[in-house]
Design a protein that fits this description.
The protein is mostly beta strands and 153 residues long. The protein is built from one helix and twelve strands. Helices cover 10% and strands 48% of the residues. Strands 3, 6, 7, 10, 11 and 12 form a six-stranded mixed β-sheet that branches. The chain has a four-stranded antiparallel β-sheet with strand order 1-2-4-9, with helices on one face. A hairpin with a 6-residue loop joins strand 10 and strand 11. The relative contact order is 0.26.
Length: 153
């Protein structure tokens, strides 16, 4: 029953949305966006999916409540990090990923420059990260475009 539920929701996520994935051993880390182009005033929706492709369960340890992160790059320079605007509790925890099962994290946010200003129009690379203790598993970069909000006259 869970497998059907997983397939029905997981496959459309990667077919209908803009997405990129990266293999790290037996772990697939995929990133998708609700759309490829945003206005600089839009709220973005990003989905990070972590899939255990190993035939055995995999256990990952965490030293805080931060399980994932998102990074935005412009011309190879890190300009925004989702976790910089968040607070995390210091807690030891583990996640067990069963074989062929995915864990999905959906985040909506409005990224801003470090100065607090809206993002400048342009093309950006977004990278998702699964962040257990000792190693980050990164997705392939996903290109998005940000356009300036225009005011109708």
């Amino acid at each position: 029953m869970n497998k059907k539920f997983f397939l029905v929701l997981f496959i459309p996520l990667f077919i209908l949305q803009i997405s990129k994935g990266a293999h790290s051993g037996k772990l697939l880390v995929g990133l998708s966006s609700a759309k490829p182009i945003y206005k600089n005033t839009d709220t973005m929706e990003m989905t990070l999916t972590v899939l255990n492709q190993d035939p055995a369960s995999a256990e990952y340890a965490f030293t805080s409540s931060r399980k994932y992160d998102f990074y935005m790059y412009h011309e190879k320079q890190l300009i925004w990090k989702w976790s910089n605007s968040m607070m995390f509790t210091m807690v030891l925890s583990n996640i067990i990923l069963e074989p062929q099962k995915a864990v999905t994290y959906v985040v909506t946010f409005r990224p801003k420059q470090p100065s607090g200003q809206l993002m400048e129009p342009g093309r950006y690379k977004l990278v998702g990260a699964f962040c257990p203790k000792g190693k980050e598993f990164l997705s392939e970069p996903l290109e998005i475009e940000i356009k300036k909000e225009t005011v109708a006259k």
